[in-house]
Design a protein that fits this description.
By secondary structure, the chain is mostly helical. The protein has one domain (29-202). The protein contains eight helices and no strands.
């Protein structure tokens, strides 16, 4: 991707020089740099404020409350897991729900490590990654910061739409994982049945030859 952008920039500069618009290129570079700095400062300030509010909610025990509410549902989704792994999963989802992405990452890494079995990803690991990717955020701080930097007067007025879309996407993602998991078990059962029938027919043929 970096090579593609380098070629694109070089092509733009050469085209501008051929059209004798080198001044326009210089103005565009300076203006885009200024906008990038303003966007970074605006977005960083908004993320700091919202993350601070979410940290207050976390220290007030809201994450622990969400983890207790989510534990029965996650037990049905992931099956039997040890208490440490289940705690990491519930805390990861709870932190993502509250917009605490930095706090959710360590819990997610610990959960994946505890669920790992060899070099192949298990169904529980795949389902956890899908849930973590399409997680529901009660307060999307990054998107609010982007809208604020773009001049939005009410950057959080899209929350109902985000909640509906995220719930639908999470439901679709979980259903897709479960369907693929069922299909995998079904085809594995067919393979085992086919191997068993082949072995049985082979043994029958050998017995007929002996007779």
């Amino acid at each position: 991707m970096s090579k593609f952008f380098n070629v694109l920039i070089l092509f733009s500069v050469i085209t501008a020089l051929m059209q004798q618009k080198a001044g326009a290129v210089t103005d565009a570079v300076l203006e885009s740099g200024q906008r990038a700095i303003e966007f970074t400062l605006t977005m960083g300030a908004a993320i700091i404020i919202y993350s601070g509010l979410m940290n207050v909610a976390n220290r007030a025990g809201l994450c622990n409350l969400l983890s207790k509410l989510l534990r029965p549902v996650l037990t049905k989704l992931f099956g039997p897991l040890d208490s440490g792994t289940m705690t990491d999963i519930t805390m990861n989802i709870a932190c993502n729900f509250l917009g605490l992405g930095n706090a959710a990452t360590p819990y997610g890494i610990n959960a994946v490590k505890s669920m790992a079995s060899g070099d192949t990803a298990t169904n529980a690991m795949i389902l956890f990654v899908v849930i973590n990717t399409s997680s529901i955020q009660f307060l999307p701080t990054t998107l609010a910061a982007v809208r604020r930097s773009a001049g939005s007067a009410s950057p959080l007025d899209i929350l109902p739409c985000i909640w509906i879309c995220s719930i639908l996407s999470l439901t679709a993602a979980v259903l897709s994982c479960k369907i693929c998991e069922r299909a995998e078990k079904y085809f594995a059962k067919l393979r085992i049945t086919g191997i068993g029938s082949c072995d049985h027919s082979g043994r029958s043929n050998k017995a007929d030859k002996r007779i």
